[in-house]
Structure to design on (698 residues):
DNA sequence: ATTAGCACTCAAATTAAATGAGTGCTAACA
DNA sequence: TGTTAGCACTCATTTAATTTGAGTGCTAAT
């Protein structure tokens, strides 16, 4: 059997309608919904074909049809003309975004929030992460009598502050010397460069201040890990409850808990970065998700990858019911990542 | 009518039972539940009295009884002998807590998480906040050709990193001078000390580097605000869904959304700090909450105030159904705040 | 190839009946 | 006088029966 143009049109209409209502859609509805004036009977015949082809199913005998995962997939791959407007909305997003973006963390949280409230789906965003980041420099200073502050700056301007308790007071001159020592060794160092040998050499040269170095190493290692690891921010989990097919108590609880499971989200983000297409967009429908849990069964996830100038990448994800408005989500994500790329490159100039 | 000892015992039994089951409790149940061997008929008589006194109600004619807010209040104030064990659990908590507490933020998040998973209620914790914090010192350093890093340390060791774009490169010596200038003026300054006059004087003395100062002022002001404002971390919102009386779709959505409303939580934290009793514990039952929203109607909130050595205070809150296990919650909170006070004072030594 | 018509199906909504936990009251008892 | 057994009554909840209506597949006519 052929999947001709008319069948495609009908399938598209079914999916579109189901997205709106969340209810199985019947032949009568479609016969009115489309522009190809056909009677419900004809539609019924076509629907029977589409069902045979595996794009739609009846949840029970003599109910309307709902799309299968394959149906959604076809929709996403072929039917979703992304040549649509939706750009007014984007401008809005942009302004909301730029309002007060001083810290990366705040900004990412805000992105997640804005995105969730715009789309009415659950959203996540990861911080950008770097491969094998290097120490840019370390700055040691005396805070008060018994504590020093080590500021460690790592690739991508990840900054780690580390308070260190010292039991002897250092005079200015000594702090200066220590600073020079530290930077001589550590500037440009990656994690694998920091070995016992290096540590020993430094300790020797630091003499009686060797103790201070301990704290610094600790801080450096933590800073590098932080730059490598990715923070994950989520927002709008409650939106799950807005979709009847997800909102019965047990299902909702599981979804919300899964959505708080940073580990799983992390896996998803990793997978998304690897698989993303040339548009940096990746769509998982139900089972397709790399997170193999029953909870994901009922969800679709659309991810986008954004990029800092220096090559560090992060992931944005939108979690919704399978009948989510893919077109809108994809276009929103596309413009958002463009925004972000823009902002990040501006920041550096 | 008198609220004699027997009535109290019965009331206590009713509340305890209702806490377990969440179902209205009848006379028969109580006649078995208590040690004062009475028949259900007698209990019924007593219950009628308790109802007249306003401590319990029937949700509908000829159902069992459930406690009123007044009933819970009495329970909390009088009946809740806190001379109970529950200390094994605490030790556990402690260990989980200490596992990896490098950054305050991480630690607070962890506290919220552990607490939520231990109690099965929703939890929040605020960062400690300071009154009128002062700048401890500022450290300026060159990161690369066109950016500088200002590290601003404020009372309570709140550290703010501020990247500043500079369009002229500074040599080491100049950075040093600038550092001295900045610290001369800003060390020990509170927000109200930073006025136009001061800024102007500094700018004059900085000469062609006046531009750099802009960024520093901005950073200083932000840092002070951050030290003053309180971050709020929440966890376990999904626990609401575990209690049937809270878990119908609309109610749950509202609760979860309210629980994400940082503004409201902030108000609550403020109120809690002011009202807390000598034990630093404060209990809000339903309407008593300072957050006047319908959603709070069905909740009770127990808060505890913890304290950093230097006088900065933070709030921990536990949100649950009115039938929450007050005894357990209060004792958990008490030991937790002790833990925290302990940890914080250790940190400083 | 399309469509009107009709008998048929079945989830969901509605109504009805059965169940049972719990009550208040009365009268008997220690 | 306080306590209790017994009984009629209430009403949310459960279960069963029914009605409703959207939607289907098939057939025969256009």
């Amino acid at each position: 059997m052929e999947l001709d143009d008319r069948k495609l049109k009908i399938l598209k209409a079914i999916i579109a309608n189901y997205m709106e209502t969340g209810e199985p859609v019947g032949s009568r509805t479609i016969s009115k919904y489309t522009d190809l004036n056909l009677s419900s009977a004809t539609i019924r015949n076509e629907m029977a074909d589409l069902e045979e082809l595996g794009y739609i199913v009846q949840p029970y005998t003599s109910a309307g049809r709902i799309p299968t995962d394959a149906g959604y997939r076809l929709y996403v791959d072929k039917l979703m003309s992304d040549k649509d407007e939706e750009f007014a909305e984007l401008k809005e997003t942009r302004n909301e975004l730029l309002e007060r973006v001083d810290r990366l963390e705040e900004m990412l949280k805000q992105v997640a929030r804005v995105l969730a409230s715009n789309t009415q789906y659950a959203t996540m965003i990861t911080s950008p992460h770097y491969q094998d980041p290097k120490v840019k420099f370390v700055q040691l200073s005396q805070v008060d009598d018994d504590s020093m502050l080590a500021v460690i700056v790592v690739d991508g301007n990840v900054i780690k502050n580390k308070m260190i308790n010292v039991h002897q007071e250092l005079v200015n001159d000594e702090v200066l010397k220590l600073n020079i020592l530290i930077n001589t060794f550590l500037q440009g160092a990656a994690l694998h460069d920091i070995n016992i040998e290096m540590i020993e050499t430094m300790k020797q040269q630091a003499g009686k201040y060797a103790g201070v170095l301990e704290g610094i190493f600790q801080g450096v290692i933590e800073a590098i890990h932080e730059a490598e690891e990715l923070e994950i921010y989520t927002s709008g989990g409650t939106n799950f409850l807005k979709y009847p097919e997800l909102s019965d108590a047990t299902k909702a609880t599981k979804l919300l808990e899964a959505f708080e499971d940073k580990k799983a989200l992390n896996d998803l983000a990793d997978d998304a970065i690897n698989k993303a297409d040339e548009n940096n967009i990746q769509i998982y429908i139900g089972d397709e998700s790399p997170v193999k849990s029953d909870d994901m069964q009922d969800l679709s996830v659309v991810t986008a990858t954004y990029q800092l100038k220096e090559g560090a990448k992060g992931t944005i994800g939108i979690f919704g019911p399978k009948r989510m408005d893919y077109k809108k989500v994809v276009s929103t994500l596309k413009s958002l990542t463009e925004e972000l790329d823009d902002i990040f490159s501006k920041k550096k100039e």
Chain B has a mean pLDDT of 84. Residues 38-42, 45, 59-63 of chain B lie near DNA strand D (CB under 10 Å from a C1').
